[in-house]
């Protein structure tokens, strides 16, 4: 019995996707979906660049989950998956200038403009609680 590599990867990655979608975060899996949602998102939008690495599992996704428990949160919640939905991720990263590609990473946008960004190096050496506190502070500043 053989399984295609693509099917194997989809099965392996699905729980990592589910960590965010079960929070109500919408996956943007194509460049067209990114173009449809990000530029016109009125108010605030959180964009999580998800990945398979340990810091995504141990710090990024749990930190986002904790932050979304706060009273103030973004109007829109989106995610792209680096290494899996490559074209969608590349399109989303166009909105994160001047920051270089980084995964995982977390962007907060307001009316289509980047206002807060957490790069991988700010994720891998901090706890989920510290990332949640960073995001909650940004929510308090921009999601009023």
TrEMBL record:
Pfam families to which the protein is assigned, alphabetical: Disulph_isomer
Family listed: Belongs to the bacilliredoxin family.
Protein known as: BrxA/BrxB family bacilliredoxin
Superkingdom of the organism of origin: Bacteria
């Amino acid at each position: 019995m053989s399984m295609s590599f693509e099917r194997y990867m989809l099965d392996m990655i699905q729980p990592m996707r589910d960590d965010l979608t079960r929070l109500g975060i919408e996956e943007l899996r194509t460049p067209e979906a990114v173009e449809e949602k990000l530029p016109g998102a009125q108010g605030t939008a959180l964009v999580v660049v998800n990945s398979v690495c340990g810091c995504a599992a141990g710090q990024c996704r749990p930190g986002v989950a904790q932050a979304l428990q706060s009273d103030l949160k973004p109007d829109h919640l989106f995610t792209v998956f680096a290494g899996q939905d490559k074209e969608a991720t590349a399109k989303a990263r166009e909105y994160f200038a001047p920051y270089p590609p980084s995964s995982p990473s977390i962007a907060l946008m307001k009316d289509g403009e980047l206002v807060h960004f957490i790069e991988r190096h700010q994720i891998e050496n901090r706890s989920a609680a510290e990332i949640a506190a960073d995001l909650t502070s940004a929510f308090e500043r921009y999601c009023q």
